[in-house]
Amino acid sequence: MSDDPVVFEDFPRGEIPFQMSRRALFSEIKNRVHVMRSQGRGAQAYTLAQLGEWSDEDLAEVQPMIVPNCKISTQDNYVCAQLPEGVALQKLFQIDSPALIVFNLFNGWNPLGKISQQLAESNEWDVQYSFDYARGVFLSLVKAGICRPRY
Description:
The structure is a single chain. The N and C termini lie far apart (33 Å). The protein has helices at residues 22-40, 56-59, 99-104, 112-123, 127-143; strands spanning 64-66, 71-75, 78-82, 90-94, 147-149. It has 151 residues and is an alpha+beta fold. It has 5 helices and 5 strands, in the order ααββββαααβ. A hairpin with a 7-residue loop joins strand 3 (78-82) and strand 4 (90-94). The strands form 2 sheets. A 3-stranded antiparallel beta sheet has the order 2-3-4, with no helix packed on it.
């Protein structure tokens, strides 16, 4: 259905494999310790890597947002991002991609289910296909360090 060179709708299910710098690895270790402590106190906690394992119903309630201080720009017909740590500019997707509709709705208030409904209406796509596509955009950007759920 989509002409994207990136096949967002086929983002794999399962734990998200992150490639991390040493600094990011230290941050992830701290996060996992926090998760384990929270779970020990009976709180529901998860890591970003576990988002890929969530059911569609649970993920539909997540409110995606762009990480604070991430710089978004366009270059060579692509939407690009630069993380606050000064990491090199990353090309995210082509500017004429349906991913732009999804990305523009990642404001920390719109749940992924609502975002996928708007995508379905805008592109006259099947509801499940639209959800799979929006899920893939979100999780791809989580993996890239550009997005996270609003906590």
